[in-house]
Amino acid sequence: MRIAVPKEIKNHEYRVGLTPASVRELVAHGHEVWVQAGAGAAIGLTDAQYQAAGAKLAADAADAFQRGEMIVKVKEPQASEIAMLREGQLLYTYLHLAPDPEQTAGLVKSGAVCVAYETVTGPGGGLPLLAPMSEVAGRMSVQAGAAHLEKSKGGMGVLLGGVPGVAPAQVVILGAGVVGTHALQMAVGMGAQVTVLDKNVDRLRHLDLIFGNRITTMFSTAQSVEEAVLAADLVIGGVLIPGAAAPKLVTRDMVARMRKGAVVVDVAIDQGGCFETSHATTHAEPTYVVDGVVHYCVANMPGAVARTSTFALNNATIGHALALADKGWKRALADNPHLRAGLNVAHGQVTCEPVARDLGYDWVPAESLL
Question: What's the topology of domain 2-120+307-369?
Answer without folding.
Answer: Rossmann fold (3.40.50)
